[in-house]
Amino acid sequence: MKLLTIALFGCIFFANCLTADAIYEFDNSIEEKRFYSLISEIRCPKCTSGSIASSDVPVSRDLKQKVYELILAGSTDKEIKAYVTDRFGASSDYKPAFEGANYLLWLGPFIFLGILMLVFLSNRRL
Amino acid sequence: MNAIYRSLIILLPLIVLITYGTILITDQDDALVYFEPKEFPQFDLQDLEDREIDLAAFNGISLLNVWASWCITCLVEHPFLTQLSKNEITLIGLNYKDSQVKAKQWLGKRGDPYIFSIYDPRGDLAFDLGVTGAPETFLIFNQQIIGHIQGELNQEKWQSTLVPLINAATMGNQ
Question: Given 3.40.30.10, 3.40.605.10, 1.20.5.440, 2.60.120.10, which CATH number is that of B30-170?
């Protein structure tokens, strides 16, 4: 019985080792924070919806590894995002830059809301 | 005036609903990924036989098919690729995250439709191409990627997405 218990606990600990995620080690906490914020803003290309932080498919693992390497190599957040969107398309950036055609993307809902407000208000006055 | 606004309140959401509904219905998740031409990335890899890659294969129209011996859907599309290779289509393989031995066995057993297969065990070139898995197929015209299909390539997808792109590319060049 004692042996069985030890064997069972052994199995549990061993399973833990097998499923352990890749470990990313950084020199400082700023880089570590940048890493975790970046991987939560990059879309998993193989998933319907979700960031690479929440995904363990091979391509997400590759992407996380690449982001890690680029941070260690001294790339800026903007450079890393450009690196990813160049390869996996603009839709892989969950937080598109506030510039160019993206103004419509960011401001579109407010413009739509504004138009609706105008319609409702003019409707009331009449 | 009031009637127009009233009808707008109903019509506007209806138009939005129909537009998005049509997009959702017609959108196939494994259809063409993008249209904008992109330069084929540089790479430093050999083929499955350890030979240097002949870059001349990327001139004119060619197809680059991402495959692996572990990939089930690659088996499904293999007969269609074989059929394509018998026509005048240049078919290049990109062997993705595979073992060289297993890949060669796979081709030996099922037939090799590719003029050569680039051996990419770590998926380096595949990463630069934006490959998310296997199979995927890229349409190349004069070192430029002009089309990208994720998932199985079959007669239907070939006719509906790749043939029009090939016609447009070759027509513009003549």
Answer: 3.40.30.10
